Fold each of these.
Amino acid sequence: MRLSRRDFLELMLAAGAAGGLGHSGKTLAGSRSGSGEWREIPQDFYDVPRKGNVHLLHFSDLHGQLKPVHFREPNVNLGIHDFKGEPPLLVGKALLRHYGLDRFTPEAHAFTYLDFREAAEYYGRVGGAAHLATAVKRARAERPGALLLDSGDTWHGSGPALWTEGQAMADFQKQLGVDACTGHWEFIYGDKRVQELVEDLQGAGTRFLAQNVVDRDWLDPIFDAYTLHEQNGVPVAVVGQAFPFTPIANPGYMFPQWSMGHRLERLQEQIDKARSDGAQVVVLLSHAGMLTDMAYARQLRGVDAILGGHTHDPVPYPEKVTDPDGEPTLVVNSGSNGKFLSVLDLEVRGGRIRDFHYRNLPIFANALEPEPEMQSLVDRVHEPYQDRLSEVVGEVDGVLYRRGNFNGTFDEILARALIEGRDAEVAFTPGFRWGPTVLPGKVTFEDCMNQTCSTYSETTRDEMTGEQIKNILEDVANSIFNEDPMLHRGGDMVRTAGMRYAIDPTRKMGERISELEINGEPMRPKRKYVVASWADVNEPQDGPQAWDVLADYFRNHGAVSVDEPYLPQLKGVSRDNPGLAS
Amino acid sequence: MATQEIDTQRRKFLTGALALGGVSTAIGLGVLAPSRALAKWQEEAIMTTSLDDGLNQVLGSSTYQESDQVQLDAPEVAENGATVPVSVETSLPNVDNITLYVPENNAPISAVFELGSRARPSISQRIQMADTSEVVAVVKSNGQLYGTSRKVQVTVGGCGG
């Protein structure tokens, strides 16, 4: 969307409060760096005065990260066709320019990869359940009755999350007082376990909402679709939309009787039903990915705001999308790993939203005291596993990160570890977007778990024909770069080792991948190659766990040099694409 | 979810299925395939490999009129290519049959439903899809052919997230 003058002023005001315009308030720390002077985090950074009468707090994609982490945003997050240069597909300076943010500010570090290592060392870690809890407490103290909403991918992503089958994370949600949540990676624990945890949450007042999960044969809904809350006399409905492609992107055999999909007709019915129940504000809590959320907003009637996750795209300001009735829908995505808390204040009068105020607050662990009760939960949850997690498996001389459309330094090492550990010619590693960033120095077993843990992380070693290998690349590319956002399954391009290829994201299925070479030779369609991979979604596997293969690679090599990750040759995309920076 | 609501839905479904079953015969090719039970034309139909041949075999013509009075419901992306749920409904009068085709399958004819005169023209069927393809639904109403199609993606899956 284009920022109106008023939007722009409001944004500048927010940036000013954050120190972006040379705010001269008291400071926490100061530093001069090689590339510029970092602006300190102002003491009033987390003072967000209450406005309006309906208040929504939102986070997403925590991925099991209860302790503060680093998380590098991507330098490649391409928008093509209609989406070139459109939020959220902006990176680095282009993102700062679009939102009028200054470089060398806390926001610049939170929303971009720029000067990542220096900035990470200067600002310290982000997220952390106890720090997030303090930010939530502060926002709530100003806004009694505010709703706290979680778009999902909370139960998965760390050793303690996996080994407690999600219990650690459900306990976190209860302790934080999440009012409603939805899911995606939640489903990897299987139908029975999901229902147990949903019941556990429900007992504590946290509702799991997912209108688009239905019985495969009878189409009966499995979960509640929406809840109604009243805030300052205004009835507010929250409708849940789980990740529509979970049975395809994750092992459907863990929940064989559940079917998902967008189910937009049913979604519209739920919205209409909530309206007829008296809702004056309807919020869609979504795990579809931001581009898909914007496509929803164009098709659905009567949605005031979509608070979403999945693609891990944090936006500094909502997108305003026009629905089929010409009414605006605000679309917000709050980022991942506990790094952000969105605060959306709505001014509702006479049953209509008159104005809104928004901040996507970065959670800097050094600037927020840990909330004591949550801190003791975090300590309790980690205690049984601490010895195992803190094993130093190796060390690195560069930043290990994952996010980016084509590769990251951590996946580069993981793909090599698969080739070496499973004795293969080529390796595939899925383009997951979760997994925190590790600064140069020691690498622990916990870091390995954070990149690989799931209920289906067994590695595989198979023979595949050259044609099959190419089809996998085409299939994944057809999801990420499809011109129809309703077909985006999220994730990034599958990462590879032992092969080189060229990709033209702008073309159609079957035509994007070219010049495929395997171990220096042109790919032969009928030849069979030995392929190592992990996280097979079709059937249970029994190979060594990916975290052990990765940890063993570090253990065997000790010091691992972090090289530029392999990037396929990019065609059809101009260098000035605002989703591309080198 | 109230049990009562589930029961109501099941009852509705069963009533519909019963009505359909009572007055029509359904042949799901590839599902019921004991060859001796099939007439000669059906054997030939199974052997066809193109959409045009399939339409010709089943309906005697490879052309039909696009109609928004034929509603075809199918997922945009199949959760499992081996059992893709599709349903067809039409508001057209005097429907003799509803037929389904997957042009990219080796055997494109997927299902043939012959309807009795009192049957409600509404069917649901799981079909197999080898690859991403259009799914084509054609109905015969008052002796004329009307149809519609929808693309269903079949993917290798994984990598979400």
Amino acid sequence: MSSETIEFFFSFRSPYSYLAAPRAFQLPENYEVDIRFRGVMPMAMRGQSVPSQKRIHTMFDTKREANRLGMPFGPVFDPIGDGAVRCLRVSELAVDQQLEKQFVLAVSRAIWAEGVDVSTDEGLRPICIAAGLDWHACQQAISDPLIEARVPVFRFREQLLWGQDRIEDLERLLDAAGLRR
Amino acid sequence: MAVSGFKNRIEKNLAPSLIIRLSEVDAPMRLAARAKRARGQRGSVELFFAFDDASSAYALITLAELVNQRDVDLIARPVVNRGIPDDPAVDRKRSYAIDDAVRLFARGGTELVRRTPIDPEATAWLAQWVADAPQSAALTDFTVEAVRLLWLTDGQQPDRERFERLWREKLGGSPPAAGDGLASNEQRMARLRMYETPAAWVTGRWFFAHERVAQIGEWLDRLGWEER
């Protein structure tokens, strides 16, 4: 347990969150910090309009970035609606069991690189089990109620950094704080 | 039920997955670039930016350096009106853009001196000058210097006389009278389906320019406009 914490604001509907997650969860390996996962509801489910040109540009841009990072992207299955809510609820359970890294990496890859429909039990169940979660506990979590921001966002001390492409700036702040292992 | 299930699958799975596949089709753009070079023409990076936007300042200055070593022109297209309609986070984004630009400039060892947002109307006249002048290397040079003055030199309120002196130094004469340049830039930006600054249009692709400078360079390489 480190004295410093980075809050990682994440949306299962954000492909940029998917790109950020592996490097975000890697930070405690290299720095004296803990990652606190914060799942947030997608913008479009919080009443904020998302123009069609933004949606299309995001797919183009994420594909370019995924290629640069050596990560698969596509086929996708947009989790908006039940899929995002189910993932958020299971992620709370995963945090309680300290399995959030395993669950978040597996489910975001399933959504954004394997085209898995996580709004169905058929889609979500094998991911939960592979992440080490008990499916019955997940089903209970899914039936529980819940949980904001643009994502992915990192908060370290008083600084907010928005974007999967700002992890290098976050690392610079961690270096400046003398937290490199 | 079956119809709504199929519609759901198209919207959430088939359409976005198809868009991702299409994003990798670049042969028409590479052919167009090759044809342009065969006609002896240069490439271009069209940058839609705002003088009041810290992210735009970073994009303009770094893209000017990027194209400098290539047979590519930087076409600076200032706008004033941009963004998602009724965006509730406009003020927070403006303020965040400054914090973010401080870190972006710091990557290259440069300090962003201005730390307070500029009201878009406070530099609208500057945008109008550039938008209504004919494109030229001298105009791009003026634009880059103006952005440096605004963001890297001091945090003063934009002083019109100072920029008029710079205009005379770089382009000679007086800035142009107001025409339809700004409206034309904003319309072109919308036609290209870009909604926020800084946005760069490079032969069939658009990029959020402040955070995709390296990717713009890679795209220019792919189009055949490599560094000399």
